[in-house]
UniProtKB/TrEMBL annotation, chain A:
It comes from the Eukaryota. Residues 60-135 form the Carrier domain. InterPro entries: ACP (IPR003231), ACP-like_sf (IPR036736), ACP_chloroplastic (IPR044813), PP-bd_ACP (IPR009081), Ppantetheine_attach_site (IPR006162). Its main location: plastid. This is Acyl carrier protein.
Automatic annotation (TrEMBL), chain B:
This is holo-[acyl-carrier-protein] synthase. It comes from the Eukaryota. GO terms for biological process: lysine biosynthetic process via aminoadipic acid. Keywords: Transferase. One of its GO terms (cellular component) is cytosol. It is an enzyme of class 2 (transferase). Its EC number is 2.7.8.7. InterPro entries: 4-PPantetheinyl_Trfase_dom (IPR008278), 4-PPantetheinyl_Trfase_dom_sf (IPR037143), AASDHPPT_N (IPR055066), P-Pant_transferase_sf (IPR050559).
C-alpha cells in the first residue's frame, strides 16, 4: 500500500485530494484506472481484497448488530438474506438510508463517524470494521 | 481534403454499423432523436416504473445494459428496487443516445466512467473527433420514480425523493447531525411535525442535488458546512416566472467552508413531481462572474417510457414548482 501511495502521489500530486487514507484507496483504484486511461491493469496491486486485512476480525456481535440496524432501516422482509458481505446499495439503500444507518450506528455504539468515512461504508462488514476501529480509538 | 473525406467515410461506416447492430440485435424500435438543450436550458426526463408493465419490454431493456450493470442488477434484492434500478440505467443510456443527432448511437454501446471524485460521466472513448456535445447529466431514483437531468456546458445534479418518505430517526436529531445550524434553526421553528418532515425531505433533496452538481462527493461538501435557503426576490423587468405573486423565492446556497464555491452561481429548482415526489435540480449558472440576479431556470420536463413514448409535462399539473426561479417550457 505504501508503494501504491508513492506512485500515485508522484503522478497526481497537484490534482489528487490528500484524503487517500487506507479506507479510500480501494474505492479510488477503479476511478483512477479509468481516469488515467493508459495504465495497464497489472500496474496496480489488487488492493480491494486486503484493504481491511488489519481489521477483518470484527466481532460477530458487532456484525450482528449492524445487520439488525440495516434490516430495520431498509425494512427488509424476513426472507432477505443479510450477510457481512451484503452491499447496502444492492439492498435498496439510497443515500438517505445510508446516512440514517450511519446515524443509528453512531447512537448504538456511542461513536462519531467522519463524513469521509461514512461515504465509504458500503457493506455490513465495512461498517462493523469501522465501528470497532472507532470504539477502540475511543477507549484508548 | 482527403482527411475530411476519410473522416466522413468512417463516420458513415460507423453510422451504418450502429444502425445495423440496432436493427438486428433487438426488436426495439429506433430511438427518436431529441434536440440538445440550449445553453440556458435544463431538460428533465422521468419514468414511472409502475407504467412499465410489459415483461418483454423489460427484458429488452436489460439487453441494453453493460455486463457490469447486468451483474449489479443481478445482485440486487427486491423486485421493485431492481426494476427501478434497471430503468435508471435504461433511461440514462437512451436519453444520452437520443441527443446524439449527428450520429445514431446505440444506447447499449455507451460507456460510462467516473471522475476522480466518483461522479458518473460518459466515456466518449474514440479518437474520431466527431466532437461529442458538452452534455452533462445526472440521475436519481426511488422505487417509484426514475429521473435524469440533462444540461449543456454546465454541471447538473438532481435528487428525487418520495413525498411520503419517513425517517427512521427523529427529524430534529437527524437535522442536528447532518444539516447546518441555520437549517436546524429553521426546522426547529416549524411546530407541525408533518410540515417539519416535509421541509426536511425537501431540504435533503436540495442538498443532495447540490452535492451531486458540485460532483466532488459527500465528503467534499459535508452537509453541515453549507446552508440552503429560499430568499424572496422581487419580480421586476422582463422575467416571467411560474407564479401568480409579485414575489418569487430564489433558492440560494451559502457555504461556510469552501469560499471557492461562494463565487460560483448555483441555481436551484424544487418541484412537486407527478404528485408523488419532490424533485430538486441544481445547475451551475454559466455566467459565474456575479450573474444576473433573478434569472429563472428554463426547464422542460418529459415523462417517458424509453422506446415507447414521451409526454412533455412541463407546465402541466404533473410539475408543480415549489420554490426556485423556474420558467417551464
Amino acid at each position: 500500500m505504501a508503494t501504491f501511495s508513492a506512485i500515485t502521489s508522484v503522478i497526481f500530486a497537484p490534482s489528487l485530494k490528500p484524503s487517500l487514507s487506507n479506507n479510500v484507496i480501494a474505492e479510488r483504484t477503479s476511478n483512477l484506472k479509468m481516469a488515467i486511461g493508459g495504465w495497464r491493469k497489472n500496474r496496480f496491486p489488487s488492493l480491494k481484497t486486503n484493504r481491511f486485512c488489519v481489521s477483518c476480525s470484527a466481532k460477530p456481535e458487532t456484525v450482528q448488530k449492524v445487520c439488525e440496524i440495516v434490516r430495520r432501516q431498509l425494512a427488509l422482509p424476513a426472507e432477505t438474506e443479510l450477510t457481512s458481505e451484503s452491499k447496502f446499495s444492492a439492498l435498496g439503500a439510497d443515500s438517505l438510508d445510508t446516512v440514517e444507518i450511519v446515524m443509528s450506528l453512531e447512537e448504538e455504539f456511542g461513536i462519531g463517524v467522519e463524513e469521509e468515512n461514512s461515504q465509504n461504508i458500503t457493506t455490513v462488514q465495512e461498517a462493523a470494521d469501522l465501528i470497532e476501529k472507532l470504539v477502540e480509538k475511543k477507549a484508548a | 481534403m482527403f482527411s475530411f473525406v476519410s473522416k466522413r467515410l468512417s463516420l458513415m461506416m460507423m453510422t451504418k454499423v450502429c444502425c445495423f447492430q440496432r436493427n438486428f440485435s433487438s426488436a426495439l424500435p429506433p430511438l427518436v432523436p431529441v434536440k440538445l438543450p440550449s445553453k440556458m436550458e435544463t431538460h428533465f426526463w422521468y419514468v414511472l416504473p409502475d407504467e412499465v408493465k410489459s415483461e418483454s419490454l423489460l427484458s429488452q431493456y436489460s439487453e441494453l445494459l453493460s455486463p457490469r450493470e447486468k451483474k449489479n442488477l443481478y445482485h440486487m434484492q427486491g423486485d421493485q428496487f431492481k426494476k427501478s434500478a434497471l430503468l435508471a440505467r435504461v433511461l440514462v443510456r437512451t436519453t444520452i443516445a437520443r441527443y446524439q443527432t449527428n450520429c445514431q448511437v446505440n444506447p447499449r454501446s455507451l460507456k460510462f466512467k467516473k471522475t476522480i471524485y466518483g461522479k458518473p460521466e460518459v466515456d466518449w472513448e474514440n479518437g474520431d473527433k466527431w466532437c461529442p456535445p458538452p452534455l452533462h447529466f445526472n440521475i436519481s431514483h426511488t422505487s417509484s420514480l426514475v429521473a435524469c437531468g440533462v444540461t449543456v456546458n454546465v454541471p447538473i445534479g438532481i435528487d428525487v425523493e418520495e413525498k411520503q418518505r419517513r425517517l427512521k430517526n427523529k427529524i430534529l436529531a437527524f437535522a442536528k447531525r447532518y444539516f447546518s445550524p441555520d437549517e436546524v434553526k429553521l426546522l426547529t421553528a416549524i411546530s407541525d411535525p408533518e410540515i417539519q418532515r416535509q421541509e426536511l425531505i425537501k431540504l435533503w433533496t436540495l442538498k443532495e442535488a447540490y452535492v451531486k452538481a458540485v460532483g466532488r462527493g459527500f465528503s467534499a461538501a459535508p452537509f453541515n458546512t453549507f446552508t440552503i435557503r429560499a430568499r424572496v426576490v422581487k419580480m421586476g423587468g422582463f422575467h416571467h416566472f411560474d407564479t401568480q405573486h409579485s414575489e418569487a423565492s430564489e433558492i440560494v446556497v451559502e457555504s461556510s467552508d469552501d469560499p471557492e464555491n461562494l463565487t460560483r452561481n448555483w441555481q436551484f429548482a424544487l418541484l412537486d413531481l407527478a404528485g408523488s415526489h419532490y424533485a430538486a435540480i441544481c445547475i451551475e449558472k454559466e455566467n459565474s462572474a456575479g450573474g444576473e440576479a433573478g434569472v429563472p431556470m428554463r426547464l422542460t420536463v418529459w415523462k417517458t417510457i424509453p422506446f415507447v413514448e414521451d409526454e412533455r409535462v412541463s407546465g402541466t399539473g404533473a410539475v408543480v414548482p415549489i420554490s426556485g426561479l423556474i420558467k417551464q417550457l
